[in-house]
């Protein structure tokens, strides 16, 4: 049974990755192209000021990056998320299934997906919004990556702790207030963590030659559009992953219930 659930998690992640890649190819890649064009304009402006000309050569062409590179990256991320989500569901369902067998596993999967999206994508994206190429100093790349990874790991750990707290409180103060207490504890934890982590505001301003502007700053509209499309892409990925997982989970569990006995089917599993 666990192997089947893990399999449908991987399949759901694969489907979600394909949908997310198509969306990214249509909506996000044009914003990346605008950012790459800006890099060329800025490099030319800086060469006018410094007199130095940089001749960078890309290892992979833009066509390879926006098609093969984006596609592989999106699919790998989605499949890994699908597999991890399935494992998390198995653990949660093993606990809830024994305590409350009448619980609908589909509701558990949807609730788990909502928590996973908030912990893995929602909070890290809110604190460190994604930026298109040409935004951010190369010297702070390591610090930015480390801060984002730290926040993501802490966010996942706090979400697990908040869920445990909610389960522990549910028999004492009721399910609703237990969930509220868990949510407050999680928000408090991620807020403190985000406050302790460094802040980065590195959108390039105009290129100046004394008091004269020789090159424009990074277009703010491109940054805004890129962030909106990037967040929407994550929402789309998690939504498709959840819908496919729940649909396949329902089929697998009904088949399992038929094999065990008709009483489980009549119970609504």
From TrEMBL:
Domain of life where this protein originates: Bacteria
Transmembrane domains' residue ranges: 7-28, 72-95, 107-128, 148-169, 176-197, 235-253
Keyword Transmembrane helix annotated: yes
Keywords carried by this UniProt record: Membrane, Transmembrane, Transmembrane helix
Source organism per UniProt: Gordonia phthalatica
Protein name, UniProt field: Cobalt transporter
């Amino acid at each position: 049974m666990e192997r089947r659930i893990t399999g449908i998690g991987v399949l759901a992640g694969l489907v979600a990755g394909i949908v997310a890649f198509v969306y990214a190819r249509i909506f996000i890649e044009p914003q990346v192209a605008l950012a790459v064009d800006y890099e060329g304009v800025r490099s030319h402006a800086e060469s006018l000021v410094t007199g130095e000309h940089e001749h960078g050569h890309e290892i992979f062409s833009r066509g390879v990056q926006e098609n093969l590179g984006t596609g592989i990256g999106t699919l790998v991320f989605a499949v890994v998320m699908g597999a991890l989500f399935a494992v998390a569901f198995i653990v949660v369902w093993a606990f809830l299934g024994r305590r409350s067998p009448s619980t609908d596993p589909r509701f558990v999967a949807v609730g788990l997906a909502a928590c996973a999206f908030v912990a893995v994508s929602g909070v890290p994206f809110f604190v460190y919004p994604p930026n298109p190429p040409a935004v951010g100093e190369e010297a702070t790349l390591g610090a930015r990556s480390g801060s984002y990874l730290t926040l993501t790991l802490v966010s996942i750990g706090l979400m697990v702790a908040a869920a445990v707290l909610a389960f522990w409180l549910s028999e004492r103060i009721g399910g609703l207030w237990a969930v509220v207490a868990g949510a407050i504890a999680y928000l408090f934890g991620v807020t403190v963590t985000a406050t302790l982590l460094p802040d980065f505001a590195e959108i390039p301003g105009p290129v100046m030659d004394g008091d004269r502007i020789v090159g424009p700053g990074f277009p703010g509209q491109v940054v805004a559009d890129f962030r909106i499309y990037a967040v929407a892409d994550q929402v789309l990925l998690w939504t498709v992953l959840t819908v496919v997982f729940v649909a396949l989970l329902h089929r697998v569990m009904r088949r399992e219930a038929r094999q065990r006995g008709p009483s489980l089917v009549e119970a609504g599993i």
